[in-house]
Amino acid sequence: MLRVSVSRLSLKQQTKPLLGSVASAATAKAAAANTAVKLTSARSLATTAQSHTITLPEHSFETYKLDPPASEVQLTNEELLQMYKDMTIVRRLEMAADALYKAKKIRGFCHLSIGQEAVAVGIEHAITKLDSVITSYRCHGFVYMRGASVKSILGELMGRRIGISHGKGGSMHMFTKGFYGGNGIVGAQVPVGAGLAFAHKYRGEDAATITLYGDGASNQGQVFEAFNMAKLWNLPCIFACENNKYGMGTSAARSSALTDYYKRGQYIPGLKINGMDVVAVYQGTKFAKEWTSSGKGPIVLEFETYRYGGHSMSDPGTTYRTRAEIQHMRSDSDPISGLKNRLLSLNISTEEELKKVDKEARAYVDKEVAEAEAAPPPEAEPKILFEDVYVPGTEIPVLRGRIPQENWSFTK
Ligand SMILES: Cc1ncc(C[n+]2csc(CCOP(=O)(O)OP(=O)(O)O)c2C)c(N)n1
Ligand SMILES: [Mg+2]
């Protein structure tokens, strides 16, 4: 049932408004393949396509059974600026969700990714729209980067009809083209991701699947089963562990006998990447994509990252770690500040120009919040409940309810 509803929702094309993501040259070919992704023309910053060589610090990568990616990365002004805008919007989106939750306009589960923005943004800049992405419940940044609008994400969180899952999924269940959720069961997306990679291989597509999971999920049996199948069949599967140091309130060291998650594939080579540096994420993911595209089979990535907030909205996040630790990560390793410093030191933009980007991002997210809030909820009618269950045309005649009055006839 889930499979069918996913494919139905993934047919929806989302357009990206002003300041939208994926405008870089690196993703231009992807954008061409996906007309739904609009290139932004709202450039108020330096836009000449000037290329820069960024030398990543030595600690950016650690390897297991492979040679590291090049530490020299070629990126244009445009690409770097777009990464900055994307991370800023993802953070603003999450901050808006935080405020709406506290105002009781969002209910239920809600897991934010503030601090982890470089992972979703760096990955998207390194792949194409033909590739697939699947992750856990901490999914808002990924669905945005795959092409969903901020309004459709916040609308979903507030249970609106304009929500990306028509207001019926909520925080953990968002889908768009090339993005398979938003999965609430810890680790369950990992074998599904291997299956998506199998589909790419079976159809002869030049595409890979990025299957994300957490440090907490990494100890599940099904992760190792997926590793085995992916290696046996040499699937184009990029297993990507987002090691944010905690699974709920349990630190990685308390849950994992080996915290080198990039070595967990045993017979699958691995790469650990500084997940607080968007350029390192970009370079490591590009490397992984080339690895799988050249027929070498799966690879295991570990993005070392950090969430500033609690596990979910119901966790203050300060009982199992110190405030000093969080403060230290914020001030020393913040992904947005890190890229900002690079943009300033490379003379790509000035402090004022970046302030303007921040202001525009805030105004854009505020506008999307207002529109999402003003949008109506789904109609209170049974037919709404039975939408998105089957791909249109493949419905069974009658879907049984608990009592005869609840039975739903698709043939009516
Ligand atoms: C099978 C299963 N067991 C337990 C849970 C409850 N649970 C939700 S999130 C979580 C921790 C997962 O941590 P991690 O994989 O590190 O991801 P993070 O939240 O840090 O992104 C747990 C145990 C669940 N949702 N599913
Ligand atoms: Mg974790």
Automatic annotation (TrEMBL):
InterPro entries cross-referenced by the UniProt entry: DH_E1, PDH_E1_Alpha_Subunit, Pyrv_DH_E1_asu_subgrp-y, THDP-binding
The enzyme's E.C. designation: 1.2.4.1
GO biological process, one term: pyruvate decarboxylation to acetyl-CoA
Reactions that this protein is recorded to catalyse: N(6)-[(R)-lipoyl]-L-lysyl-[protein] + pyruvate + H(+) = N(6)-[(R)-S(8)-acetyldihydrolipoyl]-L-lysyl-[protein] + CO2
Gene3D superfamilies xref list: 3.40.50.970
GO MF terms, alphabetically ordered: pyruvate dehydrogenase (acetyl-transferring) activity
Positions of the Dehydrogenase E1 component domain: 86-380
Keyword annotations from UniProtKB, A to Z: Oxidoreductase, Pyruvate, Thiamine pyrophosphate
Origin: domain of life: Eukaryota
Pfam families: E1_dh (PF00676)
Cofactor (UniProt): thiamine diphosphate
Oxidoreductase keyword on record: yes
Function: The pyruvate dehydrogenase complex catalyzes the overall conversion of pyruvate to acetyl-CoA and CO(2).
Protein's recorded name: Pyruvate dehydrogenase E1 component subunit alpha
